[in-house]
């Protein structure tokens, strides 16, 4: 049924503060939770972190005390939502286990978005990026078996395949080649704006996660792999954030952020398999509706425009976590050798790409290659989970 967030008021802002007792959520069962429930938790953590950081940036350039107070009030609630959501992750999970779940999110969320995106240039950006996070999943899965003696299939549960994507060594482009052309805020479909915000937020939290947890490892190969993939996530943040029209006003961006939170909580409420978690998505949706109304009021006051002029008349089809195996396989077969030149996509390794590679590698293979070599030497092969047959690209077969 069509849901228009502008027609619902939600929970009044002054009633949204939760006690410590309410924030102390029961974590997911580490052994029996639906892997896609964990993916939804990780996604919403990324979205809440983005809400908080965006609001801080706005606060830093805003001189009006009344507006700053409203932003601070909403931001406090976003932080409480972030705490309630991220604290659903169980303490038993190792950092590497959570890392593998992060890359599963990147694969199946970006895969869904790529399939649903109506604009061909934006779609290409998601298709390009998803093949890289797909490869990260494979590299981390090999590290996981090597240092924790466990298999990534326990975590992805056969919903996502684990095998080489575009090899990580090829992700290290010249920074200027990670930029893209933005959509046009006046003509882009509302769903395109939501997609760009969602994937930007997901990549940003992945970048933050790796930069913080990487040095917690003792094993040199683990430290190096987190460093290397952490630098690729920096590239991904640049890649996706540059899709967003920089001409959007601060108020328009605030409205888009709050609308996107409504969209995702509504999506996850509709698709959640765990009733206890579904109730959290529903509660947070009802909080976001009030944030959205507050953002709309600010837009009317400071932009002199109606929010309806930038928003969809109703929520698009729900964002759904589901396997994207055949889609990824088709992309592998058709786009594995693609790279970037400026804001476009090319097949050849060009001069700027080669120069960057030489500077970084210094004549030695990076950790993303070493982890596979070491795994092969110790265990007689690499770790893969190919549920749909052999790899679609000949030279990437086991
Ligand atoms: Fe929020
Ligand atoms: Fe990644
Ligand atoms: Fe990424
Ligand atoms: Fe919000």
Overall spatial form: globular
**Structure class:** mainly alpha
How many separate helices?
Answer: 13
Strand order of the largest sheet: 1-2
Ligand names: fe (ii) ion
- Count all strands and give the number: 2
Proportion of residues in β-strands: under 5%
Q: Biggest β-sheet: count, sense, barrel?
A: 2 strands, antiparallel
How large, in whole angstroms, is the Cα Rg? 21 Å
Distance between the termini: 46 Å
Which parts are unreliable, with pLDDT below 50 for 5 consecutive residues or more? none
* Percentage of residues assigned to helices: 55-70%
Order of helices and strands: HHHHHHHHHHHEEHH
Average pLDDT, to the nearest integer? 97
Task: Give a short summary of the structure.
Helices cover 60% and strands 2% of the residues.
